[in-house]
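fold description:
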Amino acid sequence: MVNDLLSELKAGFEQAVVALRRDAAKIRTGRANPNILEGLRVDYYGTPTPVMQIAAVKVADARMITIQPWEKNMINAIEKCILASDLGLNPSNDGTIIRLPVPALTGERRKEFTKQVKDMGEKTKIAIRNQRRDMNDMLKSIQKDGEITEDDLKKALTKVQDMTEEWTKKVDEVVAEKEKEIME
């Protein structure tokens, strides 16, 4: 029973770190990365639709993203959506394809992005600590009900703490990796 709860906790920790990686991938670095467009939604016949679903998004080179809509009449809508976003990118189109040059980041912008990554990391750590607290409460209530002994409770609480520390370190690694990528 305790092992099932611990594996459930591990799965929750994994989900938190995967979500952090996904969110960190959306932050712009100095290189072209199609993931920065992931959050953009274009009005596609009255329905907000992700850019990736209405166009082919490719990385042409290290500093250029190309967006080729499946329907040519969507080119202006995609361009307006990019301009309205806070990505700080200026699209240009030739009637069939949108070119999105990714400028090098300024020092100030790099610091802003690293701060954003640190905030994401801290929120992930908070989520992990909340899961730890909930698991500790659950284990204590199971022990009160007499389903596990006090010794088993102490062992389980120690395992939960060790897992929490391990996953918190993984969060720190993800944050440090992204900061390094931003500062390059």
Notes: The beta strands are 41-44, 47-50, 55-61, 64-69, 92-93, 98-101.
